[in-house]
Amino acid sequence: MTKLSALPTLSRFAHLSLSLRLSLAIGVILVAGGIVVAVAALAYGQQAAQTTFDRLLIGAANQISASITIVDGAPVADLPITALELLALARDDRIVYRVVGPDNETLTGSNSPTIPPLNDDISFFYDSVSNEPVRLVAVRRHFAERGYSGTVTTLVGHTLRSREALAWEIVRSALGVLAIAAVFMVVLAGFAVWSALAPLRRIERALLARDPKDVSPLDIAVPRELDAIVEAINRFMSRIKRQMDVLQNLISDSAHQLRTPITALRAQAQLALEEPDPARRTEMLDRVHQRAVGLSRLTDQMLNRAMVIHRTDASSRETLDLRKVAIAAAESFDDGKIFENGTLRLEMPDDELPVRGDFMSLVEATKNLISNALTHGVAPVCVHTGRREDLPCLWVSDQGAGLDENQVKSIGGRFARKDMPGQSRIASATHGSGIGLSIAAAVAQAHTSELFAKQLNSSFEIGFCLDMHPKKGPE
Amino acid sequence: MRVAILVLSLWILTSSVSAQEAIADFGPAGAAQRMLIRSTTDIEVFGPVLETFLDDRPGLAIHYEQWGSNDLSALTATQCEQGGEVADLVISSAVDLQVELVNRGCARAHLSPLVAALNPSRNWRNEVIGITEEPAVLIYNKDLVSDREAPASRFDLIDLLRPEESRFAGRVATYDIEASGLGYLFAFSDSLQANTFGRLLEAFGRSRAVATCCSAEIIDAVAEGKYLVAYNVLGSYALARAARDPRIGVRAPTDYTLMLSRAALIPKDASAALLAGSLIDFLLSTAGRRALTAAHLIVEVGGPDDIEGDLFGGGASSLRPIPLGPVLLASMDRQKRKLFLDQWNDNLAAP
């Protein structure tokens, strides 16, 4: 989750707050929606206003037209008040009406506007009266009576103010509804952001409220989408916990294991200083030297173990050939004669033994197994690689009595169960070889495996088998 | 502030060419702002109202021209198309002509809270605004007609005229609607109000009622006893006269009372439109209404149960304002007018 912000091109967007993102999205929706609604409402409003007021015009024109009678052979309109009242419903509009005879002569009403060519008995058109646009309807009425025949056209029109007012009224109402919806959406979005971020705040609070040394997994109910984050945090925590444990173990083990030999060394050196006999002193100094060598190996192994355990947490796994691990480990013991005199042998199949793991840790573990066999076992020591129950395995055999099952178990568990009685005994009795085996055990564990040990008739085998596809362990 | 009438002159012009009947100037001669008002209202009646208006406006002078309603309308229409010395405010009792001017697009809107608060019948498009409240009334000669006998409604009038030997026969007068625009407007509005109109017209015809001109002459004749009753007289004139002539009795018909609101409009090319607007607002304000009431241009019609008004009538619920609006255009329609006049003349003959 930190990787996103590391990408420079995405960083600006990555830092954008969720509220802002949602606001932007909603803003776009509202603006686009507002434009669409406004345009639609305007079109609809104009249509509605047109229809409404055209009906007024037709109604008035029909009334006037119907009031025309033939009196003494001439058409006479008895202008109905109701027609004007109908037109007056468009409260702010000026009115124009005109009744025109067959010869285009004005019978009554104003002298303008002129009648355009008409196809239907009812037709609408626009004109203007004293510089203001007007909408007009022309209604034709055909007379064929005794003494008079011809077509009388009634024109009725009014200005457009009420139409426009109605159209805008409709637009305003639509936009009003949209505004209410917008407020509602904004509030809803705010609530959504607030509630969606609430679990993150819970996690934040839980982390802040913790004791600085508390690296136990978080136990918080979060939405499914955040499970991954909590899991990642917990995995991260467990890694920190393991590192802390390693450090703690290393420190306490080192303190414990180094203190005794150093005290002994000091005592022997003291004795040697006080020894008057040069021959004995030389002998004692020799022992001091041996002790010092042992101590340096012990220190070496302890640092190696810390390194190995660190690597199992820190290094990434790769696919490698287990045979190469055996060869690399064995070669480190090559002093020019160990292979020639048959003290150490390698035994391996022709085919590759692919496993996933950390090469250096595995080599270190194998070296410790070999070293242990060379030190405590009986030659010849043989490094085997091969398949056991179809799993790629690596084991070291010698001809000695080896360790019993309990000892193997205690070695494997010594770092996890620090308080186990007898651990220091094993460590001191084996001059640090326990550390060697424990490194091997830790490596096996880090590879989701464990050490196995087998006492055969005349030989002892110790090693590990690796799964090619281990269950997901520490990264 | 005391405003003197600087000039008051009166011309009686026989020429048919349009011209003002009288002019007057209000306010200081050297005022920074000037406004021209053309009106059908008599200077003596409207002058005090203008003086009240000018009391608070020392920098304003008003030139007032008094016109006949047809001439004023014709002049305004001509200036609307051709320009000229356009008035800043045109006030006319011929509200139908005023509405027609607005319908022709000759007026400009005056928007103000007072205008917006007006009853819709007194405002069309904010361009023609009713400023007065003047009922059409019945007047009678108090010496010759007792209060009990005096008609309170059109039904009473019809009943008075019904008997064959009625002493009212031939002694009821109303406007000659062909000669008087106001008389025509009242008669036309009557025809829209109720079917009493037909019966009244019939009664007038049977009793040989007299159609004559004009307000002053009719009121004089009633005062002198030539006519006993006159129908549809403009209440403002009648009340002004009754105030100084005890022979005149005034009643608002209780069945319904037509209410005329003199219409003011600002011509579209007016140069002092803002001043004209402020005068309209003044006339609609409390102070303006008080001044108009004093001039009998706002008349309160009392009723049996109601408050006492300026005259007896049917109370507020009987009032029928003549609405400023396109419906008035019908009264001006050529053929409609001819049909209406024919109907009138079939019943009433000029004296």
Describe, in plain words, how this protein is organized in 3D.
The complex is a heterodimer of chains A (475) and B (351). With 475 residues, chain A is of the alpha+beta class. Chain A has helices at 3-6, 8-15, 18-66, 81-87, 161-208, 224-274, 278-314, 322-331, 359-376, 405-413, 423-429, 433-446, and strands at residues 68-71, 74-77, 95-100, 106-109, 122-129, 132-145, 148-159, 318-321, 344-347, 354-357, 381-388, 391-398, 451-455, 460-465. In chain A, a hairpin with a 4-residue loop joins strand 13 (451-455) and strand 14 (460-465). In chain A, helix 3 runs antiparallel to helix 4 (81-87), helix 7 (278-314) packs antiparallel against helix 9 and helix 8 (322-331) packs across helix 9 (359-376). The model of chain A is unreliable at 1-7, 413-432 and 471-475 (pLDDT under 50). Chain B is of the alpha/beta class. Chain B has 13 helices and 16 strands. In chain B, strand 7 and strand 8 (128-130) form a beta hairpin. Chain B is globular and about 65 Å long. The model of chain B is unreliable at 1-17 (pLDDT under 50). The chains are: A alpha+beta (475), B alpha/beta (351).
Give the SSE layout:
The complex is a heterodimer of chains A (475) and B (351).
Chain A: H1 3-6, H2 8-15, H3 18-66, E1 68-71, E2 74-77, H4 81-87, E3 95-100, E4 106-109, E5 122-129, E6 132-145, E7 148-159, H5 161-208, H6 224-274, H7 278-314, E8 318-321, H8 322-331, E9 344-347, E10 354-357, H9 359-376, E11 381-388, E12 391-398, H10 405-413, H11 423-429, H12 433-446, E13 451-455, E14 460-465
Parallel strand pairs in A: 9-11
Antiparallel strand pairs in A: 1-2, 3-4, 3-7, 5-6, 6-7, 8-10, 11-12, 12-14, 13-14
Helix pairs in contact in A: 3-4, 3-5, 6-7, 7-9, 7-12, 8-9, 9-12, 10-12
Chain B: E1 8-10, E2 22-26, E3 33-39, H1 43-55, E4 60-66, H2 69-82, E5 89-92, H3 95-103, E6 107-108, H4 113-116, E7 123-124, E8 128-130, E9 134-141, H5 154-161, E10 172-175, H6 181-193, H7 196-206, E11 210-212, H8 215-224, E12 229-234, H9 235-244, E13 248-251, E14 257-260, E15 263-267, H10 273-284, H11 286-294, E16 319-321, H12 329-332, H13 334-347
Parallel strand pairs in B: 3-4, 3-5, 10-11, 10-12, 14-16
Antiparallel strand pairs in B: 1-2, 2-4, 5-15, 6-15, 7-8, 8-15, 9-12, 9-13, 9-14
Helix pairs in contact in B: 1-11, 5-7, 10-11
